[in-house]
Amino acid sequence: MTAREPSHLFYQSRLRRPLVDRAEGVYIWDVDGKRYLDGSSGAMVANIGHSNARVLETMRRQMEKATFAYRLHFENEPAERLAAKTASLMPEGIDRVFFVSGGSEAVESAIKLARQYAVATGQDSRWKVISRMPSYHGSTLGALAVTGYDPLTAPFLPMMREMPKIAAPRAYLDRDNLSPHERGLKYADLLRDKILEEGAETVLAFIMEPVGGASTGALVAPDSYYGRIREICDEFGILLIYDEVMTGAGRTGRFLAAEHWGITPDLIALSKGFAAGYAPLGAMVAHNRLVEPVLDAGGFQHGYTYAGNPLACAAGLAVLEEIEREDLCGNAERMGSALKERLELLMKRFPFIGDVRGKGLLLAFELVSDRETMTPLPAAQNAYLKLVDEAYSRGLIIYSRRTRGGREGDHFMVCPPLIVTREHLDEIVDKLTDSLAALAASLGL
Ligand code: PLP
């Protein structure tokens, strides 16, 4: 079968890509033998690289024992051990783990636990979950309600309860005289204003990606933002949910991005790098003080059939062990700062790169028609698709989005697996440089 034959499959669009043959380390080969450097770890998933022998061996051993045992009929050891390992990597007190099969489910679960906690503790009036524009928290209707990305949410507005939004801290666009510290506080105080506008007694939680994902292109807030958000949530008794689906499992150079700012959220959503593509797996991790009242009040009215299955959990545990054994958080920090410097150097050669940002190996750059004013490229130029295709033809995979929600713009995620070496960085930057030159020639930039 080739990718060009008609298919019964469908996804988001008519886009068809080559058939994958095999994957190893940072590379993927298609059936024609062409090799691609996975410069975005798929969708920022394959953190430990592809086909890791130790993880495969663990999975093989688990498969020979039991692939599935329903959680209402049996406990299983991989789930117990993965929960304990996960809890050991969380901030103090965040030690109750609820397994799911992906990021949307993890976010959905966090919102539902928060709500059931409020009900169980006599705070029934609290139901609104404030989030940011732009942001991405998943595809299920609950996760979508807190997502700030118009093209994804607009068709479903009549079906879901849209949640209040505040502007994401896109401080890099601001042309004012504020210091980074003041800017961070200014953006965080938008939350305070929104809580007062909505009525604090109606607000349940605030959800944020500590470093933005594809919706904002690796947006990092000024340092002062993070602590101030925590203070505001505490002031009004509002739960703080960190969506670490993309940032978790070492991607930003710490196991959790929250560690960079010493923040302890109340709930954390994990997926993607948590099982690094070896199994569909995610987790919602909560403070024990939220879980106990819900269990006492009759139980958490929520769950998924595949949750906590032994095969996925065995894979997840092997992945976390690999992250520790190979110090992949440390490598993400070291290789991330080297790659960021190289991307910043590209700004000298290509004036249409407006900004380079991110943390660890969650990096992005944004294209603009004028760096001074940060004017986006015209949408009709479709730069976000064209540059990806240029890179693809050269055997490099990067991830792009045209942001909508507050402001439009083309940005590109450069997020290779956390196992990358300096030689891999050379290959990424060389191929990216050629791709940007080709884009400049074709769009007359
Ligand atoms: N939250 C964030 C921050 C994400 O980046 C994503 C996926 O990109 C999700 C949630 C949803 O995860 P999934 O696609 O596994 O449902």
TrEMBL record:
CDD domains: OAT_like. PROSITE patterns: AA_TRANSFER_CLASS_3. The keyword Transferase applies. One of its GO terms (molecular function) is transaminase activity. One of its GO terms (biological process) is L-arginine biosynthetic process. InterPro entries: Aminotrans_3, Aminotrans_3_PPA_site, PyrdxlP-dep_Trfase, PyrdxlP-dep_Trfase_major, PyrdxlP-dep_Trfase_small. Its cofactor is pyridoxal 5'-phosphate. It comes from the Bacteria. Pfam families: Aminotran_3. Keywords: Amino-acid biosynthesis, Aminotransferase, Arginine biosynthesis, Pyridoxal phosphate, Transferase. The keyword Repeat does not apply. Belongs to the class-III pyridoxal-phosphate-dependent aminotransferase family. PANTHER family: AMINOTRANSFERASE, AMINOTRANSFERASE CLASS-III. This is Aspartate aminotransferase family protein. It comes from Stappia albiluteola.
